[in-house]
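Can you give me the bound-state structure? Components:
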Amino acid sequence: MTEIASTDRNGFIDLPRELEDDLIEIARTLPAWSVDGSFLTGTTIERYRDGLVSAPLFDGVRDALLSTLNNAAGGYAVVRLGRIAQALGVGDQFLRLATAILAEVAIPFQPFRRWPLWKSIGTDLGAKPGLSTGVGYNAFHMDLVNATEPPDYTTLLCVRPDPLGEGASILSHAREAVSRLAPFSRGLLRDTAYTYGGFFELSDVGEKYTPFPVLDGQPEDRGFVRFTAKMLAESGLDEEHAYAARELARQMVAGQVSYTLQRGDLLILDQHRWVHGRLPLGDGQHRVTPGNRRLLLQLFLRNPDSIGRATSQAVRTQVRPSLAEG
Ligand SMILES: O=C(O)CCC(=O)C(=O)O
Ligand SMILES: [Fe+2]
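Here's the bound-state model for the whole set.
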């Protein structure tokens, strides 16, 4: 297994100590955020920006973050906020600061109506091991795969790593994985032949997309490699299309990088290019008290230019709730 740290240091953003000290003070002054529908409000974004830019070194970090996320070889970043988390704890002040930093990338929003802006991903020994809160291998996927407009970015903040030292995050460049496939498989992945999961109580991610093609033929900054390894288990997938998806899954694993998030690490991932997942947590979780088990918080981001496409269904939903579930 390759650690991102040793293969691609560019994804890691460590803050200068002076900036950390400034941000610790600034975080204490940031107001609570407000949302309008599912989006962080413009007022909050402006206030948070005013706070951040009062730290003279912040501009440099923002530039590094945006270029890491946007450059051709990039597409993910880990902003290391561990020292700030140590000073502030991972409570409201810290979350406001993390939200402020993310708002410099794109607009924070909460597509799951029943969850707050930061959705908790804890460790549930009763959950199916491969699911979000399970203890097992969470195979490569993109989040909200079956929406016409999935979030542009998914982000994960580590509140507590697995005390048993496992549960590394895995990432793979989906488009490079696709480029290594035989043309025959690529052709099959362009077919509108794949389905996955339900679509309930979601906002601002467009409409339910089923069946969908894995490769949508859109330019890279707009389209997605709509993939989740979990769709391989869906009934009704014929052998040819299942074969092509398995080939893609194999190539994703071949290109995998991994990193165990530490407390205060904030992983930001461009869903147009990268898929993600998680290695199993350490054996013996039942011996770890629930309050000490691994805990991440997840937040999604939307680019301003995708808002219009993503919100059309939400507007209709308000008028005709029955349409929402398709
Ligand atoms: O547990 C993790 O590290 C990832 C979880 C995840 O990808 C998800 O819940 O969508
Ligand atoms: Fe995920």
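A couple of observations. The longest helix spans residues 239-254. The chain has eleven helices and 13 strands.
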